[in-house]
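for the recovery benchmark. C-alpha cells below, seq after
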C-alpha cells in the first residue's frame, strides 16, 4: 500500500477489522491457503 493512497476512513476500517480475533484467523487462513470457500 502506498502512503499517498492512505486515508483515515480506510485506516479506521482496517484497524476495526484487525481488532476482532475471528477476523484475524480468517485473514491468516486465507493468506496461508491462498483461497478458501465457506460454502457447504
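predicted aa per position
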Amino acid at each position: 500500500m502506498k502512503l499517498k493512497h492512505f486515508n483515515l476512513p480506510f485506516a479506521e476500517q482496517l484497524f476495526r477489522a484487525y481488532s476482532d480475533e475471528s477476523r484475524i484467523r480468517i485473514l491468516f487462513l486465507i493468506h496461508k491457503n491462498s483461497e478458501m470457500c465457506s460454502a457447504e
